[in-house]
Amino acid sequence: MQDNIRILIVTMVLVMVSLTFIPWSLADNTSADLSVTSAKPLYNPPARAQPPVRVKHNRKSIKTICQQWMNWFRRPEANKKNPPRKVATAAATRVAKRSSDPKRGKRIRPQDGIIANAETQEVLMKNAYIKYSADASLDADKQGIISLNTGDLIIDTYKPLLVKVAGERVLIKAKTTLLMSLRDGVVKIRNLQESHRHSIHVFAGQKRFAVCAGEEFVAARDYPTLQATASGDFVQRRRIKTFELGDGTNIMCSEYALVSLVKTNYLLGLMAYSRITDDRKLFGKVVKMAACLQIATRNHGPYALIAHASS
Predict the structure, then answer these.
(1) Which of 39, 111, 115, 303 could pair with 236 in a Cys bridge, judged by C-beta atoms 3.0 to 4.6 Å apart?
(2) What's the predicted TM-score (pTM) here?
């Protein structure tokens, strides 16, 4: 009996001791777990996206950068530390194209700013391109003034140009194409195409004559010479007007037919059937202008040849 009581007492003591120490160990483990959980949470919410920062760009600097890139692509030699090239004008560009073409032949430079080629019968200036006939004689000074002594010229202007022919001055505006001839003292000026109205002004004596697209100006020393010239070139005309100046010079202004002019003028016909790209483009502009004039001036009546004067 006493043994049983002793066993019961020992058992109760062991139970009490176990109940006393176990909660402290659980508390220690729980605190450790909590500390770990606080350091590394089980769920991490995504971070809130920050709005983009707006940077104020300098428009001037962006424009400068773009210009530098454009210059870099246009001038590959800039990477070779070469000095910058001068900006090439339209005339200089055409000079380079023509000089690179072997069919153009070798070019010579008679004066500064003027390029001439006797083989292809053309002159390239800063403000105009001139194609002349084989028997033509012309001079050009450093100021860009052309003097026609004889022959035929086809002039395509980039900028205003002044031409002197037989004592008369011809002022030509930019973007104008005309055919000019001087033979046996007779001056003929025909406006082939223009970008502005009244782009050609002829100063004869004390008067000024405006020549529009599709019109011509003919000057001779007397009326019989004027009539013989007008009837002998086989060019169809209409709306003919004649004037007589104080010095006896006779003037004729009229509208001409481009088809008949191409058939009768050798230089213009040569350009119409040319294999050179620039000549074909130039003649294409003339044909377009003639087509527009045909529609715009259809109420002016038909073209006709001038009858020969009776002896």
Answers:
(1) 303
(2) 0.63
